[in-house]
What we know:
This protein has helices at residues 17-29, 67-86, 105-117, 127-133, 153-165, 217-223, 299-307, 309-317, 319-330, 332-340, 391-405; strands at 5-13, 35-39, 55-56, 90-91, 95-99, 123-125, 141-145, 149-151, 177-180, 184-189, 194-198, 203-211, 231-242, 253-256, 268-271, 277-280, 284-285, 351-363, 374-378, 381-386. 31% of the residues lie in helices and 26% in strands. Strands 5, 6, 7, 13, 14, 15, 16, 17 and 18 form a nine-stranded mixed β-sheet that branches. Strands 1, 2, 9, 10, 11, 12, 19 and 20 form an eight-stranded mixed β-sheet that branches. Strand 11 (194-198) and strand 12 form a beta hairpin.
Amino acid sequence: MPGGVVTTDVGIVGGGIVGLATAVVLRRRYPDLSVTLLEAEDRVAAHQSGHNSGVLHTGLYYRPGSHKAICCREGKAAMEAFCEEQGVAWDRCGKVVVATREEELPRLEKIAERATENGVEFTRIDTDRLRELEPHVAGIAALHVPGAGIVDYRVVCEAMARVIGSGKAGGSGQAGGVRLGCDVVSVTPRATSVVLGGRGGERVECGRWINCGGLRSDRVYRMAGGETDVQIVPFRGEYYELTEAGEPLCRNLIYPVPDPAFPFLGVHFTRMIGGGVECGPNAVLALSRGGYRWTDIAFGDLTETLRFGGFLRLARKHWRMGLAEMHRSLSKEAFVRALQKLIPSIRARDLKPGRSGVRAQAVGPDGELVDDFLFAETERAVHVLNAPSPAATASLAIAERIVDRLPES
C-alpha cells in the first residue's frame, strides 16, 4: 500500500473494542459497504481493550439518562449475545458492592437508588448473606448484583476482527477489513472524500470515517480540524493477582463503595474468565500515553499533560489521593492494606505481580474528568473523544450511536 492510495466507503481509526464494534455494526447494517479499520499496532486490542479487568458491567453507578447508563445496559445484552453467537466464553457470575464503615452506608444507598433508576437488578444483603457469597469479605452491608459478569475482551476483539475480515473487500484497489501497523498521522480533505495518511506512507481514501483512537483520539480530532478544550490524560492502573494458595479468598467480583471525592472505583477483586483473580487497579498518572510502567516515559506526552491547565487543576484538587495512589504503586504493603479493607485476611504472600493498563480519560479545562461518553463531528467524520469504563461492556451500543451520527455519503 505505501506509495499508492486504496479506497474504502468508511474508514475507522483505532482497533480497540469501540472501533471494532463500530465496524461490526456497520457491516451488519450496510453489508454492501466496504469498511476498513486502521490500527497502529501489530494486533487489535493492544491497549485499553486488551488490558482491562474483563467485567461485564450492569450500569450500576452511572447517572440516570447518561450515555454510560443507557449504553451499558443495552451494550451488555448485545455483548452477551455476540459472545454466544461467536463462541466466546463468558460468565454471569454476579458481584457484591461492600460497605465496610458506617460513613459508607449513605453512599451505598445512593448506588442502590441509581441502580433502581437505571433498571439494574440488585438485592440489599446483610452480613450473613454476604458471608455466604464471599466468606472472606468483611462488611457491614452490601448490594448483590447478580447480572454482573466476566469475559476476556481481547478474545472478544479478535472475534470482532474475524467478523470484519469476512466483510466486503471490494474490487481492485479497494480496501476492506482490518489493516494492522497503520498509524494514522494525517487527515487530508478532498472534494468528496478524505485521505487518511499512515506513518509508513499508507494512504486510505474514504467517503466517511470514524475516529476511535482511544489514547490518541483528541490528537486525531485536531488533525481533522476539530477544536476542543478537552484533552486526554493517561492514567495507569496496576494489578496484582492472587496466588494459587490465595485464590479461595475470592469467589467472584468484590467491589468497595466508591469514594465520590475520587473519580475512580477503588481497588477491587475480579475473577477472570480464563482462571485466576485480579486485585486492583490503582490509578496513577502515566508518563506517556503508552506508559505501562514507571520507566515508560515519553517527554512529549508528559510535557503536554503538565502544561494542560485542566490537569493542573485536577492535580491540585486530588493531590492527597494522587500521592496515596503513587504510594500503592511503589509499595506492595500499601496495596495489601488497601485490599485488606475488603478481605482482612489477605497477606502479601497471597499476591503476585499482575498486568497494568492505561486508561484514556478526557479532562476538561476546569480540572473535572469528563463523566460521560463524549462524541463530536467534523466534516465526513464522527469522533469518540471519551470512552472509559464501561465502554468495553457498552461497545456495541456505543457503535450503534456512532453509526447513527455518521454523515450521509
